[in-house]
Amino acid sequence: MSDQTVKYLLPEDRMPKSWYNIAADLPPMAPVLHPATGQPVGPSDLEPLFPREVILQEVSTEREIEIPEPVRDIYRQWRPAPLFRARRLEKALGTPARIYYKYEGVSPSGSHKPNSAVAQAFYNKEAGVKRLTTETGAGQWGCSLAFAGSLFGLEVNIYMVKVSYQQKPYRRALMETYGARCVASPSVETSAGRAVLEKDPDSRGSLGIAISEAVEMAVQREDTKYALGSVLNHVCLHQTIIGQEAMAQMEMAGDEPDVVIGCAGGGSNFAGIAFPYLGRNLREGTKTRLLAVEPAACPTLTRGRFAYDYGDLAHLTPLSKMYTLGADFMPPGLHAGGLRYHGMSPQVSQARHLGLIEARSYQQLECFEAAVTFARAEGIVPAPESSHAVRAAIDEALRCKAEGKAEVILFNLSGHGHFDMQAYTDFFGGKLEDLTYEDSLLADSLARLPQVSEPA
Amino acid sequence: MSDQTVKYLLPEDRMPKSWYNIAADLPPMAPVLHPATGQPVGPSDLEPLFPREVILQEVSTEREIEIPEPVRDIYRQWRPAPLFRARRLEKALGTPARIYYKYEGVSPSGSHKPNSAVAQAFYNKEAGVKRLTTETGAGQWGCSLAFAGSLFGLEVNIYMVKVSYQQKPYRRALMETYGARCVASPSVETSAGRAVLEKDPDSRGSLGIAISEAVEMAVQREDTKYALGSVLNHVCLHQTIIGQEAMAQMEMAGDEPDVVIGCAGGGSNFAGIAFPYLGRNLREGTKTRLLAVEPAACPTLTRGRFAYDYGDLAHLTPLSKMYTLGADFMPPGLHAGGLRYHGMSPQVSQARHLGLIEARSYQQLECFEAAVTFARAEGIVPAPESSHAVRAAIDEALRCKAEGKAEVILFNLSGHGHFDMQAYTDFFGGKLEDLTYEDSLLADSLARLPQVSEPA
């Protein structure tokens, strides 16, 4: 075998025909509660926000949910996505470990996000919706929904977290190239945005604020719905095509991962690579390690509380039981803006709470160091979000080296960093710093978590 | 068949095992002349610049030249590159034409350039070279040689045309991420650069100047060679893998192109997609139209002269017979910096001179309009260079619509525009203008072409 990076490509006819739904195998979860009544929400409560098919997916416990043929037709432009054996990286690290990465940067918008954006745009189009609103952090989700909207002739309005809007003007340019409208959040367009600006005119924004704005705009208009890029069950569902493909490709490679790694912001990327393996662990008793990696500056899984909380700052969303830093926790403005969310997918949270997955956090400098090592070996420049998974994969490989173990490491390289080169420029220029928050801020934010009496 | 974009992927074992050399089929060309003596150069004259294998390829007339296995191993990370049928674009245009595009943006650096960069780095490494110098316009070539250098442990020094260095800081960041050194040209590091700066301290630079600087640095050091990203025969040779793959993929699609389109700066991208078809035209009498597209602001093939000229401003390179605007012609600072070269591949020039290919020029605004239409339909944002081919493909498709003809159009989408989003931002902001030069400047530059008595 050559000492070069090896690509494993599935034939198109082996692209999964259904998404895998972890709800079929995960122990039952605490119900989602209505923000006004505190009672469990029913599907009809979600109708102002989402089309019917999406709501059904959100609450489904069917193990397999068919991917509609028109969605598969679009996926095929870049899927099945490649899986690589990182032989050049292994050599650079001098590790006996075998490192594989699934690469989702091959999508038109450069990340895994279109897996859900295309599906959500399709279901909305089918339901006669004319316009979608959404939030975006670093812009990966906004670009992907803009792309999906352009395919289905849907108008797309995007509230982009202000710090990223300023740090990443080229993500905004990409959204506009796809024909979407992108606004810095907090904005004066919504009462949620105006309320934040009144208290803090210099607010850098957060995903929690941007979600409030997008939800507010969606519920006001009959022809408009809301689309969320992570956290929710249906988004995790759509991303499982990643892990399902990876499983088939690892089989092609004749290898079986000891550990599967993904970065986690809202959780859907991690869910995408990990849930098919988690389901197998639960059904068949396999013991594949599953590792979620998050920023130390926004450590939801590692320092948050497993509790009921709102998904947004203005408390417009339902309450979910999840790991949370508190809906008004304001994380520092790190470059991995896609990981800058106070909450975590309830399904990922449940898995963590039950000890079914591991979690780890890293500072941003050590992530960029890992990203540069990776880029020089493998040629692909990782997005700052993905660099967290790269860091963890490299650390696992170095542990294997120290222990003399030839373990198999699989991670999801969720996107490329072409629109994040300012961060790399800052890194090389010595202008990038590790970011922290005051412990008291987190304690205060957790102390303000809503008091909810959990239904029996 | 779906109305979505369709992908045609060659299996890896059908990746070409050899490059196609047009010199085997093209009528003999005028000899390359030594800049000092005016006599035809022999292989040994090129030895200060290039390793032996590269020189042999430059002068070879063998039809097939084997791709070394280590180069193929690296190619396999992203090759065979996909070919797409642009059904969504066809629908958006309402054309009966069938539009196909070969997509080279899947390479790690995002363009077709690694096809030659990897090969050149390999041959230099084999020859014991420690360091490569090169020039880059928009940065696609610089990034690609930086990538290739990182794979083979070669130091890479890049002279980047100053206007692009300023317009495209993120290309520079990418080169640095790969570990290369990037300097704005004209620089004070070379006598060629200092001479330009003395006359014009505000010089925006040109590929002709940057080549002089890179060549000067290479000839000064024993362990250093020079690598050129286009123009020369061996570079065109390495790019023919594009057209060879496309031919096999068009066969998979059950279609045959009536016209093959590529943008042309130095000519190697156009050669890559077109030469395999040109060779077939020459050998088998097929009549596939071959269309080279260039910027109206640097119209080498459409307004230049077919004459002997230097490849660089300082007259350090040999003299080649080619279409040229004159080595001291200073094109305006258009965003498609990769097409901003005064000369043209002698092989492409010869084909044009003999009427074997067509050429057309476009202004930059109409190219960006076409690029946005393409991005909204196909999801991929073209590089400004590639947008010239997109414009021509769309115009051919609209001609087919007007004429009611279902012709087959194939173009090479040579790279993505992720590092060129400032140009898109300027375009949407109304800040982008068509660029022209004074006719008298071109006339003067052509009047200064060297007086060469062509060998019989």
From TrEMBL, chains A, B:
Domain (Tryptophan synthase beta chain-like PALP): residue spans on this chain: 77-415
UniProt keyword terms in alphabetical order: Amino-acid biosynthesis, Aromatic amino acid biosynthesis, Lyase, Pyridoxal phosphate, Tryptophan biosynthesis
EC number(s) from the headed UniProt entry: 4.2.1.20
Listed cofactors: pyridoxal 5'-phosphate
GO cellular component: cytoplasm
Top-tier EC class: lyase
InterPro entries (UniProt xref): Trp_synth_b-like, Trp_synth_b_CS, Trp_synth_beta, Trp_synth_beta/beta-like, TrpB-like_PALP, TrpB-like_PALP_sf
Known pathway: Amino-acid biosynthesis; L-tryptophan biosynthesis; L-tryptophan from chorismate: step 5/5
CDD domains, per database record: Trp-synth_B (cd06446)
GO terms, molecular function: L-serine hydro-lyase (adding indole, L-tryptophan-forming) activity; pyridoxal phosphate binding; tryptophan synthase activity
Pfam families in the record: PALP
The family this protein is said to belong to: Belongs to the TrpB family.
Job description of the protein: The beta subunit is responsible for the synthesis of L-tryptophan from indole and L-serine.
Name listed for the protein in its UniProt record: Tryptophan synthase beta chain
Taxonomy of the source species: Bacteria, Pseudomonadati, Pseudomonadota, Alphaproteobacteria, Rhodospirillales
